[in-house]
Amino acid sequence: MKQSITIISIFFFTTFYVNAQTIERQVIGAAGTTFSNANITAEFTVGETATATISNGIVTFSQGFHQETIKLEIFINPKIYLQGAALSPNTGEENLMRDDLRVASLVPTTSPYTDGLTCDASVFNTTGANAIVDWVWIELRAATDNTSILYSTSALLQRDGDIVATDGVSVLSFNAAVDNYFIAIKHRNHLGIMTSTAILIDTTSADFTNASNQITFGNNAQTTSGMPNGITVMWSGNANNDTVIQYSGITPDTPAILSEILNDPGNFLNFPTYVVSGYNANDVNMNGSTQYSGTNPDTPLILQNVLAHPGNFLNFSTYQITEQLPENN
After folding, report:
1. pLDDT digits (tens, 9 = 90+) for 302-316
2. How far apart are CA 138 and CA 233, in angstroms?
3. 75, CA 20 to 30 Å: which among 164, 305, 319, 324?
4. Domain spans of the chain?
């Protein structure tokens, strides 16, 4: 069956394949030019109409006005580990993050970040290494100014650390030109990270998990605490969603957890050991439940991180772990 499509449709989609067919030039006018890629070459007009229908048996260009519209697209393959989901791994799966939130059907189909992207609920049916752990936020920043965010999007994180598109499997893409960019990655209760240099992005892999080849901006931007040998992860414990992790002091994260527990309608006796189930930032160990003190509390992880930070050589519980992004320094 003949495929009929206008030229504006061809240029709107960047991944249009026509078996490497070429249509000969037949557009003649005062203004216009030729656009081509590996699969197709075609004329377009500026301010004038095409007066004849052109076909090569595969694609038909109809009569009428044709205008160039080019959509650029680049692909990246970032890889990260979240400390909260990487601690206490399942037996035999030490190099995979836990997907407790997915197992408990707590990961929302709508992103918690500002773009509000959505995914189909069936995305969370996948198990194994490609099962979804949580939503993350990705930024491409200008090579000439690493505080300038040019492009950003929500994405999904798999258990093996791969960050993928909202279908849960596809490589993450941006409508942007191939160029050098800083890549920044954020999570709702972990400290954000960024590449130390701008890297050329085409189909680029950015592995933030390799402890022997750390690519992060700043000092001690990630941690190896509690991780398998050779693995580095994003710091967990940023419950109040600022730019530091602190156990006690001026801007501590632990009061947010206590407030969550004491203000829950079900905790009418105000027990600090009460457990709140659900998807929220105070669940810093990402097991689907939040507890201030008791059998599986979230607060010890914050204290452990503060005491384990290489900069806290005096072991102060008031020490602040600062997010290593340029706007915070």
Report:
1. 999 999 999 999 999
2. 16
3. 324
4. 3-65, 74-234, 244-328
